[in-house]
């Protein structure tokens, strides 16, 4: 598989283990908490754990410190980006772009046709996804219209 750390970058990406689960869940729950409240959803740690076990999970580091999480799954001819989570204070400095670029490279290397993700309609990250070529593909798996399904070709 494409090795993300072969690309010159200030970020390092490593495969996560179950030892990283607590960090990944806490970061995701913290980042998504406001959206869950606004859209009347309830965080389910058991569902996150099940998804974590089924996903390929990565930890983004800067200077040896964990600052982000990337979780992906392969579904048919698509790479589904389950989570791009960046810790507060590190957003807006290229970390999300780095993770999306790595996802795109992996999808291309695997011979997949598209990337897909879901995003809350009021999440400012949707602007980043659009800049990186993602387009709204409909309300797939959307709950009450609060989540957009987005795709981009590889």
Automatic annotation (TrEMBL):
Any one GO molecular function term: acyltransferase activity
Keyword Glycoprotein (UniProt): no
Keywords: Acyltransferase, Transferase
Gene3D superfamilies: 3.40.630.30
EC number(s) recorded for this UniProt protein: 2.3.1.-
UniProt xrefs under SUPFAM superfamilies: Acyl-CoA N-acyltransferases (Nat)
Residue ranges of coiled coil: none
Domain of life: Bacteria
N-acetyltransferase domain segment(s): 11-154
Keyword Protease: no
Name this protein carries in UniProt: GNAT family N-acetyltransferase
């Amino acid at each position: 598989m494409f090795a993300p750390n072969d690309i010159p970058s200030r970020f390092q990406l490593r495969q996560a283990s179950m030892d990283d689960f607590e960090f990944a869940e806490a970061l995701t729950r913290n980042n998504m908490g406001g959206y869950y409240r606004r859209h009347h959803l309830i965080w389910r740690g058991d569902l996150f754990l099940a998804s974590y076990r089924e996903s390929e999970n990565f930890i983004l580091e800067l200077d040896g410190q964990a600052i982000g999480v990337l979780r992906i799954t392969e579904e048919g001819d698509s790479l589904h980006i389950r989570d791009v989570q960046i810790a507060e204070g590190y957003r807006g400095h290229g970390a999300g772009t780095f993770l999306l670029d790595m996802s795109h490279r992996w999808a291309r290397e695997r011979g997949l046709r598209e990337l897909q993700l879901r995003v809350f309609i009021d999440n400012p990250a949707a602007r980043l996804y659009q800049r990186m070529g993602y387009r709204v593909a409909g309300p797939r798996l959307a709950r009450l219209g609060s989540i957009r399904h987005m795709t981009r070709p590889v």
